Amino acid sequence: MESYFDTNKELWNGKVPYHLESDLYALDAFKTGATSLKEIELALIDDVKGKSILHPQCHFGQDSLSLARMGADVVGVDFSSEAIKTAKQLNQELNLNTQFIESNVYDIPQHINQEFDVVFASYGVVLWLPDLTKWAKIIYDRLKKGGRFILVEFHPTIYVLDWDSRQIHYNYFHETTPYLEITNGTYADPDAPLQSKEYFWVHNFSDMMMPFLKLGMKLIDFQEYDFSPYNVFGEMSERKKDQFVFKDMETSFPYVFSMVLEK
């Protein structure tokens, strides 16, 4: 797996400078006080003042820092050295006290022994992970008794599609061998002069839920949403603020889901 992870780390290191300049991440507005968190996760997170939060796959830290602004004690983790370097710079610039650690998700136990009130992850995290059973155990071990794992993620059906043709292109069920694609640009800036290889794994709902339930965690909440908060899936239209759907598609379609599990 190390070669896959190394390739993906290079991919994400290359994305960082383009994401910092993109409209999608709206860094200037964020620096002046705007939250990067969307309504879906804000409703689930609720009041985090004084709570400890672990945020794996935090990219360059906007959501981690948004949670810190809300009064949480946050540790953000990402395997991209460029993303973590940027996150630390933003943390200093904004005079916050968020801790950022460069680490692969699977290496978190080597860096963090603390237990947290909340583990939070969102939008495009599970497709980079080959083993969700191991992922679930790492999250479980980092939670306090009564702590909650909050996941807001793109719906597994979105990942079976070719987004331009909207035809089924990938398997719905998980395979151990990853898909390999050559990507141009980045979801935040399709015109960026960047070409990269990426490896990813498709997972269905049972892959994502059952490892937690087998560990004894309780499913507190599960929701599906007929929109994406981000315009990142080919031709989309904005039906209202931060609600994007496939352009000219009249039938409802699941773009995002959320689940909350309690230890």
Compact overview of the structure:
With 263 residues, the protein is α/β, with parallel strands linked by helices. It has eight helices and 13 strands.
Verbal overview:
The chain is an alpha/beta fold. It contains eight helices and 13 strands. The protein has helices at 2-20, 27-31, 39-45, 62-69, 81-93, 108-111, 132-141, 205-214; strands spanning 52-56, 73-78, 99-102, 116-122, 143-154, 161-162, 167-168, 179-184, 195-200, 218-225, 236-240, 243-246, 256-262. β1 (52-56), α4 (62-69) and β2 (73-78) form a beta-alpha-beta unit. α1 (2-20) packs parallel to α5 and α7 crosses α8. The protein is globular and about 45 Å long. 33% of the residues are buried. The mean pLDDT is 96.
- Content of β-strand: 25-35%
Q: What would the average pLDDT be, to the nearest integer?
A: 96
What does the radius of gyration come to? 18 Å
* Main sheet properties: 7 strands, mixed
Q: What order do the SSEs take from the amino end to the carboxyl end, as H and E?
A: HHHEHEHEHEHEEEEEHEEEE
Q: Termini, distance in Å?
A: 29 Å
Identify the overall geometry. globular
Percent helix range:
25-40%
User: How many helical elements?
Assistant: 8
